[in-house]
Amino acid sequence: MSSTPLHSEFDSIASLRSALQARKLSARELAISALDAAQRRSDLNAFLHLDRDLTLAQADTADRLLATGKSTALTGIPIAHKDVFVTQHWRTTAASKMLATYVSPFDATVVSKLQAAGAVSLGKLNCDEFAMGSGNENSAFGVVRNPWDATAVPGGSSGGSAAAVAASLVMAATGTDTGGSVRQPAALCGVSGIKPTYGTISRYGMIAYGSSLDQAGPIARHARDLLDLLDTMSGFDPRDSTSLEICDGAANEPGRIRGDFDAVVNDQQAAGDQPLKGLRIGVPTEFLNGGLAADVAAAVEAAVKTFESLGARRVSISLPRTALSIPTYYVIAPAEASSNLSRYDGVRYGHRAEQYRDLAEMTSRSRTEGFGPEVLRRIMVGTYVLSHGYYDAYYLQAQRVRRMIANDFQQAFADHCDVIMGPVTPSVARHIGDNKEDPTADWLADVYTLGVSLAGLPAMSIPCGFGSPQRPLPIGLQIIGNYFREGQLLAIADRFQQVTDWHQRKPGQA
């Protein structure tokens, strides 16, 4: 028996889809090999819940669709879901003791959309507890390990998703991005990931951390793989009050992003050997400051030069409030978390303490026992900034700065550039436990991703190199677009991946 899953022999979802449609292999065969591989790589701790019967039932449904010729772009493709998307049959824990045994009575919209498209889910993926973290060390069920180096973090909070894709356990996975939690783990694990414009994907059934920030996004190897997932996942959902009906004049529905992607690709092809001619790439001076590691800076610079060789033009821009995104985010996100997590009180659902004298003590003990240290820390911060006497000084002020940060991006797009590029993280993946003595040190590592989330913009990470010989770990390039320009971002990333092979590198390869 091969030590790698069958799907890892294919370099993209498109090539695997062709093999499935030609009946060269079945969805059931793919699912069995993927499940076996996931069990063999339990050392990564990427999965929290596998259920062979559930997965094979979905695979059999996919095979029936393939046999009738009614398959979609994702029919039979093995995927998995971050464990903050509720699912009817697999447990949904949010990587927390608070929800250790919870099984939802319904599926999240993202889950149901992908299942309806015929994708075959292996199960639920590990993450930082309630999506709070940047290293996937905050899970109540143990740290996820980076497939490139078992002593390194995979990034967070979607670390299980990125690790599973990087280790070729699945072709793609869902994640969520509140402050960079799709882009950062994608960068640190050497895969691709995209956070779309806020509101383009339904948040219904996605366990909330920061409601004005949370957005679902896919992780895969290739930009075109991301397109297949993102186009399926997006769309208006009346059950989500933050879901958008219209995106820049176009209906928010499957086909919008693919249509935009195809239009950009057609323009690129018409431009001949300079497919990106006319594209203005803004590189913020604030992204190239002294806090950026030399190996990351070199890889990002080389990637920008590759884009220039394809016809793009580099423009120096300024995002003057980049540094302020950290304090702004860590006021707003904990405030929203404090509100969202108040529902876990030991009464309605979730963990309940065994011993207590009255209702107040039951709630206090249940929350103390059920939540981990990082979640408790953010609840306390959020409760403080929302409290009487501090709301105006902290929360209201942070919202004002948030608007200024969004305006900085809009001014850059209006006056100087079409897309913005820079690093995703200041360095390659750190060692597990490095920040044990200073749990807030990870917050500083989000400096390049937080502003995008505060502004609600689309952005993605694609592999662009590796670190120094001392730590030759993956490095990601961040590409930021204006609102609703997901198709443009994916087309630009795809063009880069046609002339580079960073996204094809896998752990263990020479």
TrEMBL record:
InterPro entries for this protein: Amidase (IPR000120), Amidase_CS (IPR020556), Amidase_dom (IPR023631), AS_sf (IPR036928), GatA (IPR004412)
EC numbers, comma separated: 6.3.5.7
GO molecular function: ATP binding; glutaminyl-tRNA synthase (glutamine-hydrolyzing) activity; transferase activity
Domain of life of the source: Bacteria
Active site residues according to the UniProt entry: K82, S157, S181
Subunit organization: Heterotrimer of A, B and C subunits.
Gene from which this protein is expressed: gatA
Organism, scientific name: Pollutimonas nitritireducens
Keyword presence, Protein biosynthesis: yes
One annotated GO biological process: translation
Protein name: Glutamyl-tRNA(Gln) amidotransferase subunit A
